[in-house]
Amino acid sequence: MEDYLERLKRGSLKLYALEEELPADEAARVRRAYIERETGIALSAVGAYTIPVDRVAKKNCENLIGAIQIPVGIAGPIAIHGEYAEGSFFLPLATTEGALVASVNRGCSAITQAGGAEVRIFRDGMTRAPLFAATGVVHARAVVDYVHSHQDEIAAAAESTTSHGKLTGITCSVAGTSVFVRLEFDTKDAMGMNMVTIASEKAAQLIASETGAHLIALSSNVCTDKKPAAINMVMGRGRTAAAGVLLTDELIRHVLKTDAATLAEVNLRKNLVGSARAGSLGYNAHAANIIAALFIACGQDPAHVVEGSLAVTTVDPAPGGVYVSVTLPSLPAGTVGGGTGIATQQECLRLLGVAGGGDPPGSHARKFAEIIASAVLAGELSLLGALSAQHLARAHKALGR
Questions:
Q1: In the chain, what are the domain boundaries?
Q2: Which candidate in 97, 159, 186, 210 is catalytic?
Q3: How does residue 1 score in pLDDT terms, banded at 50, 70 and 90?
Q4: Are strands 214-217 and 178-186 parallel, antiparallel or unpaired?
Q5: HSE (CB half, 13 Å, CA atoms) of 62?
Q6: Which one from 139, 150, 391, 396 is the annotated catalytic residue?
Q7: pTM of the predicted model, to two decimals?
Q8: What torsion, rounded to 10 degrees, do the Cα atoms 22, 24, 30, 34 define?
Q9: Count of other CB atoms within 10 angstroms of residue 319
């Protein structure tokens, strides 16, 4: 090891090049030792991990020194009645926020006692939006006209790069001489960002060559990726899913310790009016909490929690109770690729019955999206109940937060 450490110190060996000379585990150990010497900070806990790092070092994380361990709790079981997710599920939630798992667990209990969450997928499409520069507004219009009249050729070019992705829609936007072409793809069981980026490059090259427009950037902010945006709220991105449950007055009193009228008023004044007054793009209590915990446990890109948080929670009067629902317009999630192949995350996906590609293709990702939507519903129910019963602070105090 000393030889490698000395070479790193001299600069004749780069941190990123260690895997070229050493197995992934040993490269991480040498890199960690070097950082410890340079900073004086012990990294023994970071260096204690169980995941096999050969794949991780090649596909998920450069300059690997170890792993951060996040506690994983289980909520449930929760009964779900979807087109893809049908049955009883335990939810793996990776979090350091005390009271979160307990809260979701209470929501799962309420949903299951009510007969289960009904859930559906309304839209399925991952987007990438190349940006072109036109010479003027007449040219910009010509670019848009070309795109609209040559969608088959554009689709053929894009789909030539992938055996799984299918171009399902194109939307154009113009701002002066800037032309944004938002391409939407069915990515089957993958979240699909890499897939659609490569496919969009091929499509963009065709558009540029045929129209004379200058390709400025393969990804514009009209996609919109990892940023809160109204376009995702309205048009959707990834999977668009909704889950709902009918709660009786008796169940609301027994499990949530409140009543239907109070539950509905809290949702109206907090989630809807409060969010509108704040200019929020999400109209929910804490959807991001549950999405983040599931995403981290199941190998998703946690930055996509931004889009996942664009959820709308509603509480509608119903005979003998209320119907509570959550709608997630933009849920980028997949069961293959990215972090889904890491051993610990793979186990959590297997726990949900969605690891790997589904049969037919796309069924596992849609099942996963239905489970996430149902989990968010459980979290929303529990927090709304705690707020309605004035129990929020008490719950956090009881759980040491």
A1: 2-59, 72-124+238-398, 130-217
A2: 97
A3: confident
A4: unpaired
A5: 4
A6: 396
A7: 0.93
A8: 120
A9: 8
Strands (E), 176-219: 178-186, 214-217
Q: Is 97 one of the annotated active-site residues of the chain?
A: yes
Domain at 72-124+238-398: CATH code: 3.90.770.10
pLDDT value for 393: 46
Instruction: List the structure tokens of 100.
Output: 């979160």
Q: Quick one: DSSP state of residue 268?
A: I
pLDDT in tens, 280-307: 999 999 999 999 999 999 999 999 999 9
Rounded Cα distance between 211 and 171, Å, is 17
Catalytic one of 36, 301, 347, 391: 301
Neighbours of 96 (CB within 10 A): 8
C-alpha 209: how far from its chain's center? 35
d(CA 179, CA 290): 37
Residues constituting the chain: 401
**In Å, how far are 6, 129, 220 from 183, measured between CA atoms?**
50, 6, 11
Could you tell me how far CA 63 lies from the centroid of its own chain?
25
Q: Which CATH number fits domain 130-217: 3.40.50.620, 3.10.580.10, 3.30.70.420, 3.30.470.20?
A: 3.30.70.420
HSE, CB side, 13 Å, CA atoms: give it for residue 393: 1
* Residue 391, φ and ψ in degrees, nearest 5: -110, 0
